[in-house]
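testing teh design pipeline on a random one, pls ignore if ur not involved
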């Protein structure tokens, strides 16, 4: 049974979330502050972290950064902060999804399942240990490893799937709709409108440099893998 860490200081809401997660077939673990969250994260392995933003002793963005430095564990923000800037900050902190309060429990559970599915459905190409070299990047599709100039990069599952999709379709403009439907289950509407823009921007910032840009933004259409060419 997959463990989900529920980091929420409202005890009633925390209990309600845990109840619904148990009903959905998951094993929830409650944390009511960031210290408890960090302790639980250090002691156990989680399939996903459901995380509030506002805590008396700090904010969830900081904890998300702490997690992302150490793990690819999916992070799902669930918070009352509904300003665009807050949502963007959540994705910049390493979130895989972001939902604002109040929320529909059924939709929340569907989106949690969608995040976990993206994490579990790792790319299958390169099963014979195939590695893809481009510019100063080395991408091991089987090992889920990306190195830049020999240094490993920390990518979220969503960022890796975007990278996989792009570099497996070189010189083809992948529209926003295609990427949303294939990676964020947009046909079921379980996607935040900012997700693709923010995740793509973060991916580009991690892999590109002054020498190689790799990904070209085709304004009004989508994105294109240009490899070693300059945008």
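output:
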């Amino acid at each position: 049974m997959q463990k989900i860490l529920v980091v929420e200081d409202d005890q009633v809401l925390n209990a309600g979330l845990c109840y619904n997660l148990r009903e959905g077939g998951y094993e929830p673990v409650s944390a009511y502050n960031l210290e408890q969250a960090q302790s639980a994260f250090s002691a156990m392995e989680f399939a996903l972290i459901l995380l509030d933003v506002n805590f008396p002793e700090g904010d969830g963005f900081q904890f998300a950064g702490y997690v992302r430095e150490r793990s690819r564990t999916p992070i799902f923000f669930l918070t009352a902060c509904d300003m665009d800037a807050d949502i963007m900050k959540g994705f910049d902190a390493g979130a895989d999804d972001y939902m604002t309060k109040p929320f529909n429990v059924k939709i929340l559970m569907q989106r949690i399942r969608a995040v976990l599915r993206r994490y579990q459905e790792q790319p299958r190409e390169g099963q014979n240990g195939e590695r893809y070299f481009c510019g100063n990047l080395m991408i091991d599709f089987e090992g889920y490893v990306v190195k830049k100039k020999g240094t490993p990069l920390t990518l979220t599952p969503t960022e890796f799937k975007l990278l996989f999709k792009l570099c497996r379709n070189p010189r083809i403009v992948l529209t926003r709709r295609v990427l949303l439907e294939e990676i964020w289950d947009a046909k079921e509407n379980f996607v935040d409108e900012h997700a693709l823009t923010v995740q793509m921007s973060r991916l580009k910032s991690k892999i590109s440099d002054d020498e190689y840009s790799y990904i070209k933004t085709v304004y009004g259409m989508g994105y294109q893998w240009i490899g070693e060419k300059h945008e």
